[in-house]
């Protein structure tokens, strides 16, 4: 008899296995070229997702329809996708030059095209992470659609309940609904979804769009309708991957074009041989930190820096932001809008044209001629795209005359992440990146220290960060394991390990940049997935993110100028 005692797997082990199974399955389906999400080919994906039960998808494993998860997903997919039977994932294949109007989801920068009544094309230009993101969201969407179907179909002939017929009537009516008509429709919808009248009325307005007030009702109707057609008429929904996408994926086509355009601009402006500092951040914090004191001198005199930054973050402050941007462009800022398909815009700051004395966090006031730093700020990458873009950016610049190695002095990464200790708006300082689902670990010397950011009324934590394969594929069990184990994980995000892989390869293996390059990482918390009701699906940061964003930005810039 075996001496090894049989032990049941923990929830974290089951979850980890489910994540691995999902990614293997998604790669297989991609290589195959097509699959039916609610057919046999999509079964493994559905089962793994139901075992995992990600926090962001709430009650996916229950009979009632998940509302907050549905809102989260639908904000990241193109409007009208629920009506489509055929979803085609493509590369950038020239649709922008056609009569098709691009549809851009509110919370994901990707071009989508409605080809006809039944087909939606989604452009993939950000690598495998984007495919995983979309397929996971689609699986959730279709699982929820079958919940709706099961609650409204009453026999094999496809006869439906009275609730469904009333919803259909409200959706197909072209006239706007009165309050009474809307509330009647929502009463029937609540029965269909297994939710209370209060729950559906509370979330109704969150789904509404300016030109589509009935969006919530239409969404429920079309999800249910397509699911009914799948069961009654065996007319399955189909996800396909274009041949060009399958051919191009993983070859850094978009990243190479993106990086070349930056280096050409540096060369044209005679900045290529200057000391270079790269920052991955948003498109406002570095610009505002450097130029708001100059552009808004009168306003700054009355308010603190933080108050000004909060004002600039308001949607109503368009004129003030325009003033800051104009001042920045007059003092050496170049803006390179993305033309490559990466959806990563870039700012270049020539500090030779910057009056450092006007920034009270800068310890330096001048540099020897030709040694003034050049700061490249790149917008956020998405998952694996971080490796593609950073690797291409750190490569030497080659033209017909010569090969120029960039004098990269530092790479700084600022972003938002899920925190496992603390709450929204707190700061995380990583000491290492663990790459989920692999044996790859990246310890590094972070130039930003915990003490650099303490003393400002914000909690600061340091420790390892886990780079996850997708933020929508996490649950409390697996996150609690990482948090409570000796890994000392303080948070999770999607790009850190990918950036490290590119930086370490360029510095220590390829010799593209100096092996003494300085690295800075800092994140502010967008949510705490270990806390109930505090996932990404629960809403944004609002102004909570302003203070940590600018504290980190000032510290990064201070260290750059100190160097």
* Sheet having the most strands: 6 strands, mixed
Rg of Cα set: 25 Å
Decide which structural class fits the backbone: alpha/beta
Number of H/I helices: 19
Give your account of this protein's structure.
Pfam families: DUF6909 (PF21850). InterPro entries: DUF6909. With 563 residues, the protein is of the alpha/beta class. The chain folds into 2 domains: 11-246, no CATH class; 252-416 and 495-524 and 541-562, no CATH class. The protein is built from 19 helices and 18 strands. It has helices spanning 11-32, 43-52, 67-74, 128-152, 162-172, 179-193, 197-207, 215-232, 243-248, 253-268, 285-295, 297-302, 305-313, 318-330, 385-394, 450-453, 476-484, 496-509, 546-562; strands spanning 34-35, 86-90, 102-103, 112-114, 119-123, 238-241, 276-280, 333-336, 346-350, 374-378, 397-398, 403-404, 408-419, 427-435, 441-443, 460-467, 489-493, 518-527. The strands form 3 sheets. The chain has a 6-stranded mixed beta sheet. Strands 13-17-16-14-18 form a 5-stranded mixed β-barrel. The longest helix has 25 residues, at 128-152. It is globular and about 80 Å long. The model has no long low-confidence stretch (mean pLDDT 91).
Give the topology, please.
Layout: H1 11-32, E1 34-35, H2 43-52, H3 67-74, E2 86-90, E3 102-103, E4 112-114, E5 119-123, H4 128-152, H5 162-172, H6 179-193, H7 197-207, H8 215-232, E6 238-241, H9 243-248, H10 253-268, E7 276-280, H11 285-295, H12 297-302, H13 305-313, H14 318-330, E8 333-336, E9 346-350, E10 374-378, H15 385-394, E11 397-398, E12 403-404, E13 408-419, E14 427-435, E15 441-443, H16 450-453, E16 460-467, H17 476-484, E17 489-493, H18 496-509, E18 518-527, H19 546-562
Parallel strand pairs: 2-5, 2-6, 7-10, 7-13, 13-18, 14-16, 16-17
Antiparallel strand pairs: 1-6, 3-4, 4-5, 8-9, 9-10, 11-12, 13-17, 14-15, 14-18
Helix pairs in contact: 1-2, 1-17, 4-8, 5-6, 6-7, 10-15, 11-13, 11-14, 15-18
């Amino acid at each position: 008899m075996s001496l090894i005692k049989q032990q049941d797997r923990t929830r974290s082990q089951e979850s980890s296995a489910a994540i691995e199974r999902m990614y293997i399955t998604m790669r297989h389906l991609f290589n195959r070229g097509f699959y039916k999400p609610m057919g046999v080919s999509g079964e493994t994906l559905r089962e793994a997702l139901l075992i995992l039960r990600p926090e962001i998808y709430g009650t996916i494993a229950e009979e009632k329809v998940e509302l907050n998860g549905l809102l989260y997903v639908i904000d990241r997919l193109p409007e009208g996708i629920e009506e489509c039977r055929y979803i085609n994932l493509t590369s950038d294949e020239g649709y922008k030059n056609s009569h098709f109007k691009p549809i851009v989801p509110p919370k994901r920068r990707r071009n989508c095209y409605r080809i006809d009544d039944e087909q939606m094309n989604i452009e993939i230009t950000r690598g495998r992470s984007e495919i995983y993101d979309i397929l996971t969201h689609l699986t959730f969407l279709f699982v929820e659609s079958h919940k709706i179907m099961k609650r409204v179909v009453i026999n094999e002939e496809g006869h439906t309940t009275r609730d469904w017929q009333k919803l259909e009537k409200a959706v197909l009516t072209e006239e706007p609904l009165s309050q009474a008509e809307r509330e009647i429709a929502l009463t029937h919808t609540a029965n269909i979804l297994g939710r209370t009248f209060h729950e559906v009325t509370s979330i109704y307005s969150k789904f509404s769009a300016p030109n589509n007030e009935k969006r919530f009702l239409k969404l429920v109707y079309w999800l249910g309708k397509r699911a009914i057609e799948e069961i009654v008429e065996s007319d399955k929904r189909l996800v396909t991957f274009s041949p060009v996408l399958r051919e191009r994926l993983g070859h850094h086509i978009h990243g190479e074009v993106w990086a070349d355009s930056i280096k050409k601009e540096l060369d044209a402006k005679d900045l290529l041989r200057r000391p270079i500092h790269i920052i991955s951040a948003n498109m406002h914090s570095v610009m505002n930190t450097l130029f708001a004191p100059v552009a808004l001198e009168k306003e700054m005199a009355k308010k603190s820096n933080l108050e000004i930054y909060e004002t600039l973050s308001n949607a109503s402050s368009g004129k003030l932001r325009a003033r800051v941007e104009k001042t920045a462009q007059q003092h050496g800022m170049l803006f390179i809008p993305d033309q490559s398909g990466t959806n990563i815009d870039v700012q270049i700051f020539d500090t030779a044209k910057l009056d450092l004395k006007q920034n009270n966090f800068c310890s330096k006031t001048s540099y020897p001629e030709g040694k003034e730093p050049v700061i490249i700020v790149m917008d956020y990458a998405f998952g694996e795209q971080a490796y593609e873009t950073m690797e291409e950016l750190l490569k030497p610049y080659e033209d017909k005359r010569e090969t120029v190695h960039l004098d990269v002095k530092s790479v700084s990464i600022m972003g938002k992440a899920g925190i496992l200790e603390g709450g929204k708006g707190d700061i995380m300082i990583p000491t290492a990146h663990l790459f989920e689902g692999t044996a790859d670990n990246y310890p590094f010397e972070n130039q930003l220290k915990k003490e650099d950011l303490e003393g400002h009324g914000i909690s600061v934590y340091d420790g390892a960060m886990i780079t996850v394969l997708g933020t929508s594929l996490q649950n409390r069990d697996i996150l609690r394991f990482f948090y409570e184990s000796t890994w000392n994980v303080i948070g999770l995000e999607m790009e850190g390990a990918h950036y490290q892989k590119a930086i370490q390869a360029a510095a220590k293996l390829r010799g593209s940049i100096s092996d003494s390059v300085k690295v800075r990482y800092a994140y502010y918390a967008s949510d705490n997935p270990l806390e109930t009701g505090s996932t990404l699906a629960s809403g944004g940061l609002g102004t909570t993110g302003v203070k940590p964003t600018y504290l980190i930005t000032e510290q990064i810039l201070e260290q750059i100028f100190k160097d």
